[in-house]
Specification:
Blueprint lengths: L15 E5 L6 E2 L2 E2 L3 H4 L2 H9 L3 E5 L19 H8 L4 E3 L5 H8 L6 E4 L6 H5 L2 H8 L4 E4 L21 E3 L1 H15 L5 E5 L8 H7 L5 E4 L1 H10 L14 H14 L2 E3 L3 E5 L10 E4 L8 E5 L1 H12 L3 E5 L12 H15 L4 E5 L1 H10 L7 E3 L3 H7 L5 H7 L1
Amino acid sequence: MTFKTLDDIGDVTGMAVLVREDLNVPMADGQVSDDTRLRATVATLAELADKGARVLVLAHFGRPKGQRVPADSLGPIVPALSAVLGRAVGFIDDCCGAGAEAAVAALAPGSITVLENTRFHGGEEKNDPAFVAALARLGQAYVNDAFSAAHRAHASTEGLAHVLPAYAGRAMQAELEALEKALGKPEHPVAAVVGGAKVSTKLDVLKHLVSKVDHLIIGGGMANTFLAARGVDVGKSLCEHDLTGTAEEILTAAEAAGCTVHLPYDAAVAKEFAANPPSLRICNVHEIAPDEMILDIGPQAVEALADVLKTCRTLVWNGPLGAFEIAPFDTATVALARSAAALTKEGALVSVAGGGDTVAALNHAGVAGDFSYVSTAGGAFLEWMEGKELPGVAALNG
């Protein structure tokens, strides 16, 4: 994977640089309620501004579908971005056109300015060449710093890279370098933890990973479908019985590829899905009653999986092992995450995790900061795990 970074951009004094960032942050009562994505922009925006560029931030917000929707304006996000940057941030109420061009021309070197929601224009999601050209007229260089939007071939995420000198921002660079270490050119043995509710949402991930990793650890509700494929009666557990044949095909492909698939052999089960239910018990997966459901991996399985990680050099993690939002069904996820974090801190393991539920689970376990890299990207991280080419990344390689 070859791409230019900010180290290659040269003298940017006075240059207008278009920077694609992810400002699609959660809002509550008109205020940003989680500034994680804003903090991820600081390295790139501050570096370019400090070098004298006129920094123009491109981003989308919500789904206005080519219409100017006041509720989807980026204006209310500007104060929060200014706060995390510790400097003034301007705002221009369009991202192209004569008015925007005049406003950009008047900006001072070293300034940072957010342009209005790119999705207010229908040409953004269509990657319309005329809209790409209109955006390009505002700047002399393009920086993509939004990996989370890199799976979309939109004007501001892919089109601009073909008409302006294109570079990866610092957040994008860190993400791509981490992913390269995890699955591009990883140090073996490699383990992958894949959890979540349904096999159907992760089929392509599982099919791709069996040829890439040495150990595939399957958790969450999807593990029940694999257990059912192996002849286990999973009782009332969440299970896609219509996909047991597909699960069997994945197990066969894994065996052919020399990939060991790890399924739980003990589990935390209960008759109802509730916090600390009175019916909670730990049992072998072959001892589940017809009126019970699997809600977490059991302690013996977790201990065995921690031993597996001790033999590995690289870990990729996507999805929780159990219903981690409700105690005590967070036990397995927390325990294995802490084992992975400890191995990472020792320098024995490169650990890369991503996906919304995964980030929440690692934060819940208190170890997100101890993993080698945690991606906040959702769809883009999943498509990368599926082995798909991401348009926004491929354009930087050009």
